[in-house]
Amino acid sequence: MNRYGQWIVAVFVGMLALTALEGEVHAQEDGAATADAPSVAGTSIGGFFGYDLDFEEPLLGADARVGFDIPDVAPGFGLAVNPALSFYLVSGGTFLQVDANVLAQFALDNGIIPYGGLGLAITHTSDDFDSNTEVQFNLLVAGATIPIEDAISAFAQMRLTRHSFSDMGFSISVTALTLMGGVSFGI
Known about the structure:
The chain contains one helix and eight strands, in the order αββββββββ. The model is unreliable at 30-35 (pLDDT under 50). By secondary structure, it is mainly beta. Strands 1-2-3-4-5-6-7-8 form an eight-stranded antiparallel barrel. The chain is 14% helix and 61% strand. It has one helix at residues 3-29, and strands spanning 42-52, 57-69, 77-88, 94-106, 113-126, 131-149, 152-167, 170-186. The longest helix is centred in the N-terminal third of the chain and has 27 residues, at 3-29.
C-alpha cells in the first residue's frame, strides 16, 4: 500500500474512533436507556469518501438507506435496503460502482447501529480503448452508524467486493476491500 493509502486508512480508523466516542457522549447526555426498544426504522441519504486497498484508489460516493424494524426477531433488529454509488478517482479512465445491498442492523441503547450484509454491484470501467460493464458481488458490507445530532449520523464501513473482469478473452477475478466513512441525513 502506498503512502496515500496508509494516510486514508489512518484517517478512517481515527474517524471511526472519534465517531464512536461522540456517539457514547451523545447517549450519556440524552440519558442512555429509554423504556422503548431502539429502532432502525427510517430513511437517510448521505455521502462518503473511501479508499480501495486492493486497487489502491480513492473514491467518493452517495449512499441511501431505508430501514425497517423487525422486533419479532429481537429488540432493535431490522433490515435496510442500501443503494449506493461509488466513483473511483482514477486517472486516465472511469471506474463506477453501483450497489444494491441488504443490511441486517442492530440498534443499541446508546444509538449506535452496527450492521452487516451483502449485495450486488454493477461496475463500469472505461478508458480511451475499452469500456466494460459487469455484475459483481458484495460479499460483505459491515460497519456502524453513529448518531451526531437528531437527524445526522456518521458511518464507517468496509466493503468486500468480488470483481470479475473479461478483457480480450481473459478473465480476471479480484476480491477488493474498500474502507469508507461518511455522513448521512435522516429524511
